[in-house]
Amino acid sequence: MIFFHSTRNELIKIALKPRSYLGLAAITGLVGIILFALVADGMTVISFVTASFEQTLRFEGKVLNGNLVAFIILQMLIVQIPLLVALVTGDLISGEAAMGTLRMLMTKPITRTQLLISKFLAGGIYTFLIVLWLGVMAVGIGRYLFGPGDLMVLNSDGLVILQEGDIMWRYMCAFCVAFLALFTISSLSICLSCFSDNSIGPIVATMAIILFFTIINALDVPVFDPISPLLFTTHMAAWRSFFEDPVPWQQIKQSSLVLIVHNILFIGISIFTFNRKDITV
Amino acid sequence: MIDSIISIQQLAKKFGSFQAVNDINIQVNRGDVYGFLGPNGAGKSTTMRCMLSLIKPDAGKISLFGLPLSSNRSAILRQVGSLIEKPDFYKYLSAYRNLDLFSRISGAPSSKKEIYQMLDFVGLSGREKDQVSGFSHGMRQRLGIAQTLLHNPDLIVLDEPTTGLDPQGIIDMRHLILRLKNEQNKTIIFSSHNLSEVEIICNRMVIIHQGKSIVEGNVKDLLNEEDQIIRIQTHADSLAKGLNVLSHFPQTNVRTIGSDTIEFNMQKEQIPALNIQLVAAGVPVYSIESKRKLEDYFINLIAS
Fold it and tell me: Which residue of chain A comes nearest to B75, CA vs CA?
């Protein structure tokens, strides 16, 4: 029962903390800007991309439709969303330590593991709401403004055109995998939060780790080949695989597994560390 | 029958190379108002934090309500209300919401009515919906007390609860502690670096210094008023005459300090007669100070 109350408490704290709305506001603002840009000058951008195919292909119908707009938005924003997630989740333990409320909480009969798990759960729910809001803004508003249509995706293998009736389930699955990737960020930042007594450190450290791993991925140097597939950042964009034809299920399963293992690892380290931590602040 | 509420044996804790507490031994019985006395950095807060499982001790045994803390943490903490150091709350939440959050994880969630009654009890009636960010230190301290008492604990642990309070706030806090003891028979642990505060509030006490419990016992026994250190200041020319008068009274440990002060041990009932005899002998008495042994000891401790 205490665990239920603790999770409820964590959700209330997130809901009533002004910082929590930064993520939602940022998504709204960024999507708004992208949509405005596409409404104003979208066809110019699309023509620039399709120009190279126009000698061999003829495009019929509305290329710049809601589905393509949603895909463009997701591509552009998936880099920024981890920061928005870490901004709230990185503060869940260390912010309490900095405020002194962790000391107050830990004099109550709730166990440290219960408190920690309730924070992971609340962080997960917040992350889910961020992904959901991104989905509503990208797919919902995108389709409302630009209408439905077939989705044209340019992959490394070439151009993939997906039928309108074959798209929505891909978005649903893509959002699930995107949530798993962002929950990994949430877990990492909560884990780092267990090591710190100041609010900003874990947020900065989370972003530094993401940046570091992303650079390792981007370097494309053979020496990093063995570790690159094991880094969670390699699988952050696994959601894109749902927009290939055929869908590479094996690759998605592998990415999901790596992300799940990372989550288990981060949660395990957090429980181990937090249960041994002396609360001196 | 004496009912032991807290038993701490040979408690030790190190932070890096700093030995915060070493060989602390404490026994608190039901209904005690027990004072932790010691200068800043003596180890009072570390001991209290160990008692509440905020800090894991390196060695020693801690039992509360007859149960080992290490294996019965949750069951024990359901019966404990505590306020360690300063009261910290979620500043962006209201007083009511803060109490509601803490109450829900205390093992006995309180109703809205109970929370409002508790806020009224600590003098925060009418401020229930105000954000804590707008509260003064005194108001936060009251809210801290409300948080401590809300789940009706048997044991209350207060770490320097009067720090930062104005004189009226200090008096209110003392009255509250005495009310809790007298009306509800709560066991209260109270830390302070102020001897007179401990003397007013507590029936038992321990002096902690450099991480060790130096003296433990009943406040009345430890602050025995029968045997006092008396210090008389006179004129340098009258010092010998003063020592002569003093020799006719029952006293011990007579010594001179500087050229004009005599210090000795004497029962306090003798002081008026001594004063009369000194004046009658023409010894000018500029001041008579009396100190109890422990007070002197404690002041020296802090001074050192």
Answer: A109
